[in-house]
Design goal:
alpha/beta, 241 residues, globular, five-stranded mixed sheet, 40% helix, three-stranded antiparallel sheet
């Protein structure tokens, strides 16, 4: 069984990002409609998957009802008392927000003993396009997209990690909170993780390092296009690739 993790902030705060004043040009209702399309295309194109939507904003009951009825796991961090993570997600650092939400989701799966073979990650509001080929993903490989074939810059709106690699990514993110606080590009950070993975250097923690070295190396395969499209939140630019 595969997990499809959808990271979502439907009701965005009026807080600038480090690189732009306007966090999102879309209203709460527009972002919700876009997120519905995300869910619909996942159901159509990734068969027999568990849809896990992780949210961090105040949403209304109609929106909550739809998400609960159309996903298998729904967690709204905004409903918890974890102020530190909420502040991270609403901070000026986009990578800190994305990284903190991913840490929360991966830790949730681990703490609740939810097993899976592969983790697909899709950014909420984007949807799987006609260029998405499930056969490219239905394997044991790490599936990603290097931006402009640059191994220092890796697309983060859609990727697939096998279970054992997703667990390593969780450790990596926890070890690199400072980089996210310093507003490193999340695409750069993800590429850095893949470089560490390929070179067998993930962390200085002996316990994690030994666990890492005992695992079989898994191939990294980049597809361009990878099969995702949608409207960029800060500019209304349509992305397809």
């Amino acid at each position: 069984m595969d997990i499809v993790l959808i990271t979502s902030v439907i009701n965005t705060p009026n807080i600038p990002l480090s690189y732009i004043e306007t966090r999102s040009i879309y209203s709460k209702s527009e972002r919700f409609d876009q997120t519905k399309r995300t869910i619909e295309t996942v159901k159509q194109k990734i068969p027999n998957s568990i849809i896990f939507l992780i949210e961090c904003s105040q949403i209304d009951e109609e929106q909550r009802k739809y998400i609960q009825e159309n996903t298998n796991i729904f967690v709204n961090i905004f409903d918890t008392d974890n102020i530190n993570i909420i502040n991270n997600i609403f901070s000026q650092s986009k990578s800190l927000g994305e990284g903190s939400m991913t840490i929360y989701a991966l830790q949730y799966l681990k703490d609740n003993n939810i097993g899976y073979n592969n983790l697909y990650k899709i950014s909420g509001r984007y949807w799987l396009s006609n260029l998405f080929n499930y056969d490219n993903f239905n394997n044991k490989n790490i599936i990603i997209k290097y931006i402009n074939s640059d191994e220092n810059n890796c697309f983060t709106a859609l990727y697939k990690l096998p279970n054992e690699v997703a667990n390593k990514y969780l450790h990596f993110l926890k070890e690199n909170m400072q980089l996210m606080e310093e507003c490193i590009g999340y695409e750069v950070l993800f590429a850095l993780f893949l470089q560490f993975y390929k070179s067998n250097i993930l962390t200085k923690s002996a316990e994690i390092e030994n666990h890492y070295e005992s695992c079989e190396y898994i191939n990294i395969v980049s597809y361009d296009p990878i099969g995702l499209c949608g409207n960029v939140s800060v500019s209304n630019e349509f992305y397809s690739g």
